[in-house]
Design goal:
This protein has 115 residues and is α/β, with parallel strands linked by helices. The chain is built from five helices and five strands. Strands 1-5-4-2-3 form a five-stranded parallel β-sheet.
Length: 115
């Protein structure tokens, strides 16, 4: 299966965003999930469409700034692990946000709806 997927905590992602670091957030959930809750500034590229929409991922990375950290999230962390593997095969280094948007809602932004 290759090297293990590197994960990053919600707290570390929040700290990077707060510090103004270059972060490209990629939400790999479905559009209906995106409509329920999302992290501000993220780009939606559903896992099922990741390869077909790779250009959007690259555009998000370019838009985030030089040396941007690519962080992928989903609902709970499973799909983002798969998405990171897909991106890695395409030459894009990325990390999976552990716990996904559910943990983000618990630890960072309690205003987000849980589903």
């Amino acid at each position: 299966m290759g090297a293990p997927v590197e994960e990053i905590s919600c707290a570390d992602v929040k700290a990077m965003l707060d510090a103004g670091k270059a972060v490209a957030l990629v939400d790999c959930r479905r559009e209906d999930e995106w409509e329920i809750a999302r992290i501000e500034g993220a780009t939606l590229v559903p896992l099922a469409e990741m390869l077909a929409r790779l250009g959007e991922v690259r555009k998000a990375i370019d838009g985030a700034g030089d040396g941007a950290e690519v962080v992928v999230y989903c609902r709970s962390g499973r799909r983002s692990m798969t998405a990171v593997r897909v991106l890695r095969l395409e030459g894009i280094a990325a990390k999976s946000m552990s716990g996904g948007i559910l943990r983000w809602a618990d630890e960072i932004d309690s205003s987000l709806e849980r589903y």
